[in-house]
Every structure is written in C-alpha cells, then in structure tokens.
Amino acid sequence: MLKIKKHTSLLLLVTCISNIALQAQTMQDYANKLITNELSFESKADIQNWDTKNSKLSLSDAHFKSGEKSLEWNWQKGASISINNLKGLKEAGDLYPGGQPEFYEPSYYPKQRFGGIKMWLYQEKPSTGKMIFQVGSNAETAQKTPKYRFNVNLNFKGWRAVWVAFEEDAKVENYKGSDEMNNIYIYPDKKIKTEGKLFIDHFLLLNFVSNKRHSDMVFTNHKLTHFRDDDGYEILPPYQQYLDYKFQQQIDAGQLAKESKHIADKLEFLILGDQTTDYKERKTGIENVVAKKIEDAEANYQKLQLTKKNGFVNGIPLFSIRDEHMPENGQIYDVVFLNSIYQQAMDYRLNNNTSAKEKSLLTLDYLLDQGWASGTSSGTVDHVIKVSPIASTVFLLREELKTQNKLQEQTEMLIWHTQLGKLLNIDYTKGENSDRIRGGALAKLMTILLMENDGRKQKMMDEFKNYMDHAIAISPGYSDTFKPDFSIYHHAGTYLNTYGTNALNTMALIHWLLTDTPYALSANSTEVLKKALRRQAEIAFGVNIHPGVGGRFPDMTSSIDKFTLPAFAFMSMKDNDVADPEMANLFNYLYTICEPKNINTMLMPNITYSGTFGTLNLMVRLHRLAGKNFNRPADGVTVMPYSGLLTFRKDKAFATVKGYNKYVWDFEGGKGENMLGRYISFGTLLLAQGDDKNGFNTTGLEMNNGFDWAFLPGATTKALPVDKMTFIVQGDPKYIEGKHRNFSESVIASGLSQNGNGIFALDLRDDVFPDKEKTLFDSTFRAKKSYFFIGNEIICLGSNINNDDSRYSTVTTLFQYKFDVNRANLFNGKTIGNNINIHQKANGGYFTDQNGLHYIVPDGQKIVFQQAPQASYKNEKAKFEKSNETYLKSWIDHGSSPKDEGYEYEILVNTPTDKVQTYLKPNYIVLQKDASAHIIEHKNTGITAYAVFDAKKSLKGPLSSTDTPIMAMFKVQEGASILTIADPDFHQEKWNHNMSLMPEAIKNAPNKASIVTLTLKGEWFLAAKTDKLLELFHQNGNTTLKIFCKDGKSIDIPLQQDDHKK
C-alpha cells in the first residue's frame, strides 16, 4: 500500500493515549482504505498488461512523481495503449460502501459510486489536441463502447494531475452493458497529426476520488455540487473570466507607473525596512529569526535535491496540501514556499547573496515544472491559501526575473493561483472568505503590481480597491467576515483569533499601502476597520479573549499580540505620521502590554504576512510619537450577539461569558484540536482581577495544563470523566461534517448593555442528536441561565436544569484554578490550606479566591470544593498527552437526572475581603426565577433587570409584559429614567442542526429587524427623542411601547413620569 510521508507542516496527528475511547486515524489509514491499485512504474511488472500500437513504452528516470522513474510513452499517429485486466479497476468502479473517506475536512458520503483514477502526466513541451481515456469491461468494449470516457488537453508543459471520478466526470450517456470495469484504452485524438511523448506516473485507482478535485486547463470535471453548495476554491472560472475580459479603458501609463511604484516602494519598505535599525528597539529578536531562517533555508534547499539536465529541473515530487495520496518521497508545495525559496530571496535582497538569488530562481523553475503553474490545479487547490510566500518571492525578485524574461510566466502563475479574475465579477451578495483575505489579498495586490503598466493593470487596480471595500463591509447572514457587532466570521461562526484577526490585519495593512493613492479604501472601510480593532481591545483582558470565540483553537486566546498589533499601527498612521491620535494611543497601550516576540509569527510569510523590518520600524516610530499617551479600553459592558458573547470591565476586574443558540454554533473541533471543548459555550464565565498586562496568565486559569473541561467556570454541564469529555470529529449520515458547529433551537444567547451595567442570558438546549450513551451529547439537557452585571456585583441565576442522565451529576462550576501553594483561597473567611487531597461539601457559604474575587452562595445549595490531582490532557503541538495536575475547583451540585433544578450565587469584584460581610445579606431581590423569566431588583441602584425566556407569561416588577423574549433593564432615577431592551433574536435564516452543508442561499441571507411591543406599569412619557421608539401610548393606567430592534443591539429609551409637554 501507499506509504505516505508524514510532515509536521502538513499533518496534525493526534497521539492516541490510553483512556481515550476514540482512537484517531492517521491520513495514511484513510488513504490506504481507498486505493485499489497503485502504479509507480519502478519496474516493468507495472506495465505487463499494457499493449501498444504505433508507439513504445519504457521506464524513464528523466521525470518522476513517485519513486525515481515514470512511464515514458513515445507515440505516433494512430497510436494507442490497451491496459488489459487492470488490477483494482473493477473495485474502483464498484460502489463506495459509505462512510468518512478523507482525513481533512471530514465529511460523510453515502453508499454510491465515487471511484476513479488519480494520475500525473508530464510533457517536455506543449502539444495540440487531446488524449482520450476510455474504460470498459473488456478490451473491445473499452475501445468501442466504453462505460466511461474522458479527455485530457495536451496544451501544457511540465507535470499535471488528472483526477477523475468515473460516474460524475466520465460517464457515457445511454451506456448499456456490464458495470464491471477491467480495461482502459488510451489514444490521441485525430486532430493530432504529429508524434508525441507523454510521461505517466503516480497512477492510482481508488474507490473514492475526492470531491475536492478542481477543474483546470487540462481537465474539466463535473463533480456533484450537493456535497458542497459553493466551492470557493474553484480556480478555473475566475481565470477564464480574466482571459475573456476585454481590457479597453484608456490610461495614463506614466501616471499608472508612478502610482504603482509608490505602492510597491511602501510594500518593499514593510518587508525589507530602510537604512535604520529602529526595529531593534522593539526587541522582538526578528533579526535573529530571519538570520536563522536564512541559515536553515540552505539545508532545506538541499533537501529538494534539485538537478538541472537538458534544460529541465528535477527534484523531490511536489503535491497539493489536500492531496491525501502523496508518495513517500513527496512533499507539499507549501514546504518549499515556507522553508527555502522566500528566505533565499530575502537573503539576496538583504545581504546581496547572489548564490541565494540563483537558488531561489532555480526553485521557481522547479515549481513550474512540478505543476505549480498557471492553468493547473494539481488535482485540488483546496486550502491552497499560503500564496503570500511565493508572491513575496516573485515580488522581491521581480527585476531579476524580468531580466531573464521570466517575470510574465511567474505573473501568470500568480494570476491563476490568487484567482485574480474574481475581481472582475465580485459577488456583492455575500461576504468574502477570511482565508481568501488573509492568504490571498496581499498576494493579489503584489500580482497586480507585477503587471505591465497597461489597461489590464489599471482595471485590476480599480477592481482591487472595490474588492477590498466589499471584503471589509458588513456581510450578510453567516458569511465571512464582519458582522454588525464586529464579530468576524469564518465557517459560518465567530472566529475572533486566527482566521478573523489574520484577515483584519491584512485589511489594515492594505489600507495603509493604498492611502493617498487613487485606490485608497473608502471612508466606510476605514470606519469598519477601526471599530473592529477597538472591539478586539474591548473584549480582551489585556490581550486575552474568551476561548469560546476562538473556534477550534481555544488555547490561542492572545490574538492581539500575535496577529493584530500591526493593524492598530496601520490604522493610526498615514505613511510615517499619526493620522488618528485616539487609535495611536490605543496602539500605544497595547504595545506596552504585548510580549514583543509574539508578533514574530506575522513577520515572515505564511498564510498571512504583515511585512518584516519596516512593519516593526513603523510600530516603533508610532510608539515614540505617542510617548506617554495611552488609551486603555474603557470600563463597561460589550455585547456581541453574533458571537454569543458579553464582556464586562470595571476598574481592575474583567469578566467574559459565552453561549450559543440557533444562529451561533457551540464549538469547533479538528484533527488534534479542541478535543475537550464541547461545553465551552454552555455559559462559561471567565473572570480576572488585577493587572491586565498579564491577562489570564497569572490568574491560575491554566486551561491547557491539566484543566478539567467538564468543570468550566460559570457553565452548567455534566461532570463527565475526561475520557467521556474527549471528542474526535467524525462525519455521519446526519452530521455530514461531524458533530460540531452545532446549533440549538433557542434564540437566547446574548446580552444587553446600559451605562456600564449589563445582562447576559442563555436558554441552554442541547439539541444535538445524542450519542449512543447520551453522555457528551444529550438531547434531554436543558437549563435557563442569566448573569446580571451591576456595579461590582455579578448575580448569577439558573433554573429549569434538566436531563435524564442518572450516571453523572450535573453541576454549575464557580471556579477552577491550577493549585499554587503561594496563593491563598478562603471559605467563609478561613484559609483552605495547602492539603492536596481536599474534597469538602457545604450547604451554602462564600469563597474568596486567589484573585480576590468573592463567590457568595446562599444557603440551601449543595456546594463542593475540591483541591486534588485530576486526570486530564494537555495539548502540545496538536498532540494530546495525558496529565495529572493539582487543581482547586468548586461547584454547585445539582445531582444526577436533575428535574427543574436551579442555582443562585453572586460574585463580587473590586471588593476588599473585609467588605464582603455587607453583601451576605443581598443588595438584590430575585423577583422571578423560572422557565418564563429571571428577574432581579437591585435595591441600591434602582435597577430592575429582566431575562425573559417566554413572552407568553406576565412578569413581575415594572415591566408587566412583552410580546417577544427579550432582555431588559429599567433604571428608575430622578429626572430621566432609562429603559434598555435588546431582542436577542437577530432573525437570520435558520439552518438545520449544525453547519454541515449550509446552503449558500441561507449562508448569505440578510437578517431582519423586529418590532418589540412591551407594557410598563404606570404612565411613562418619553424624556428625549429616539428614532427606535415607534409608538408610545397609555391604556388602563399602563404604558405600551413599540420599539424597533435589530442585530441584538441594546436600545435605550429615556422615560419620565411627568409629561413636560403639557
């Protein structure tokens, strides 16, 4: 069977540990199950049943894609090959049994015919015409009445991959005959009048050919689209659009050249810097990082084993990143991009190393020969998003390539791989994919800058500006990128680290590059980018965000320091001058708290690139200009309905809570990623208090060092052992792409903000079709949860907690920290001590944790405190390793099979320990806590706060009824009182049970507004005009209001009891 080479850059393989019930499979396991025969043409045994006519077959070492040889076919007019009784062909034509055939982006496929051929073809020079392949039950039918037929265009030079799914791509209409395939007949079409030479290698027969295959200039497939409604990686259509477009506009070539040079000079500055060493002041060590990468590039270059003979460059075979059938001696294109070619180009430009230049230029020739060229998909371009390194290489070597008359060929390669033609037909009805922005937008700009100064370049620059303005605009529905609350979407959900913030940084960089040019981005783009950056700072404690908004990377909570800090500089400056002092001061605050070296991941090309030495120069200079002016995010509440997130900041305290609903999914898993995170959106409330420079790092909240993910602070969960918490995503007939990114049937997972106070509510429903044991996925699990943030108090209520699981207790966790002998935790004012084998129970009481946060649990509730070693897993570079660390945690125990259980507790922030006693008698009254609503009256502030789950019932307090589930906060005070409401339902189109195969029509459907009608007790009058209030009238001594709501936003209505208009 095929031996697949494992690369750390390619595979994120899970180490299977004892105690994990689900065992992860490697890519080789998946690949080998699909192969019915493989031919590498290393010996004549592979061609013993290959009969030829007017042609000759031989094994050649001139070119190869597997092993060290390929099959060379020299043919003349009237030539053919008849492959008789080909082993594995019958099985390739049989039914695929159903299941999950692929390692990456796992999806379930039904019992159906998906089999076919994957092969590589090579030509030393392009030919005209086509090569025809026919498949039949025997030699005669293969030649005369085949069941399958497909054509390969021969207008190429170098290696080309051809992936054919027989039933979809090659089926002959009205075929009648046997379904058992045994023979293949190959011949050139009649248009070819001359002789030719074709090399064939890495010839695979499979009973499943990937739906990720992509048409190119060599072969056009006809894959079924219902397995992927919109494949954003389709690469042939945009290229054809580009080729067919009539570039006829009149231009000023001199002006265009001047503008292009201005932008190119700014970009080159970001990469190479200038004659200063200002960047060293930041002390990132980037100069050492670059030097080491340049040093390593030589060794990596040697591993490519490049040789040039007869004008052709050979080396190790290269393949696409999502080709799961790469041979043992193969590599992915990305390894060349990331490990050698760019570094050598940079070495030449920085150090004038001419040897590095020659090696980089030779590598470019090698890539073209291997199939990284215009017009070829190499079988699939799925997840081919690391285009920045190769684009940056060509950009840095543009003059040298032009001298060798090779720039045009490389530019055409980039036009193809950046899908530049899409700029000519922008789809304004949907958002742009974050991957396309973070991995392709800068590469697109580089490609345009490399073009000749003609009408084509002028048009593409104009359309690039339009493209970026569109990509930055608020997008509809579930589509990428920005939402009205500045959530950033990918995979139809919030992604406020990696994907989203990578895209944000790229947008800001391009904004800076295009400023003061005819292609400067719009005022709306400027506003959106600045608001999105401010929102990133607002939801972070220092640089740390809630792990629940990080997709399948919950450990990657520090996004600002790793991905977006340059963006704050780009949006603060015009060239080297401060353009926005407020943004500059926010940058300066973040600059002082970020670990300098963390930004290095963005300072060398990968998926995303932010420039290198010049980018740091810019940041250092902005820091100097800002001086001692800092703009820390203001205290208050930030609500992000599209993320199911609320954050609260007051003085030294910070809190952030996450939920999910019918529009916002729960969690995302992956290969070796987030295998423990299923409960992360079950109301997880994370708190910190102290110096935000340290973020969560010094609180003891170590979530990847032995943390028990069944006990997430604030969340209501089942107390599952770690083996039951572990989940590896697998596709199945119902959950095609796996049981993650799940939606519920509830609309409530959002919040409200009013002058620094706020509410978050969660109607928690586990509506995922249960697993066999009803453990981690349990469709009987329900809970109503609310969090009221008022002053220094966080009041947490829970009701209607239900499930049928009699094996495991259901719990609501107060806190969980890594044990530290030097940090004191108290219960009822007394130190708990350092014994590491504590398991105590109490009937109410109050804790003071090691961060000075106080948890008051009223009597009559079963609380448990544990300080002991616990079994868990630690994720190290996508490998989950068993851990046994000591943690302390406390929770409210609702018992097994809870029936309408509840809880109530209060958290005090910014409160000295000696003041806690004054809160033991609550400052609030719980007016209602049931399935209809959670309502509190806060006596000291005059606030009555509502989380209304069921609009059908009458309510207690000043708000008597509402026709819609809402959150409301009514603050009665002298002068103008304030009623704030938020409709948590932002009225998007709903899709199924999880994100699997979400149709484009739903993904891109705009959301709708709503009109909420509510009634207040007594007569109230409008104190100040607001356009959100549509109607106010009095009836029977009460006041009815009709309020316009949209996007889950908080709406303030100022009211008074005296009608001053009289």
TrEMBL record:
UniProt keyword Transmembrane helix present: no
Cofactor names: Ca(2+)
Gene3D superfamilies per UniProt: 2.70.98.10, Chondroitin AC/alginate lyase (1.50.10.100), Galactose-binding lectin (2.60.120.430), Polysaccharide lyase family 8-like, C-terminal (2.60.220.10)
Residues annotated as domain Lyase catalytic: 287-587
Cellular component aspect of the GO annotation: extracellular region
Active site residues of this protein: H383, H491, Y499
Molecular function as annotated in GO: carbohydrate binding; chondroitin-sulfate-ABC endolyase activity; metal ion binding
Domain Lyase N-terminal: 39-213
Ranges of residues in domain Polysaccharide lyase family 8 central: 655-910
UniProt: Ca(2+) binding residues: S40, E42, D201
GO-annotated biological processes: carbohydrate metabolic process; glycosaminoglycan catabolic process
InterPro entries registered for this protein in UniProt: Chondroitin_ABC_lyase, Chondroitin_lyas, Chondroitinase_ABC_I, Gal_mutarotase_sf_dom, Galactose-bd-like_sf, GH-type_carb-bd, Lyase_8-like_C, Lyase_8_central_dom
Signal peptide (UniProt feature, chain positions): 1-23
Alphabetical keyword list: Calcium, Lyase, Metal-binding, Signal
Summary of subunit composition and partner proteins: Monomer.
Family: Belongs to the polysaccharide lyase 8 family.
Name assigned to this protein: Lyase
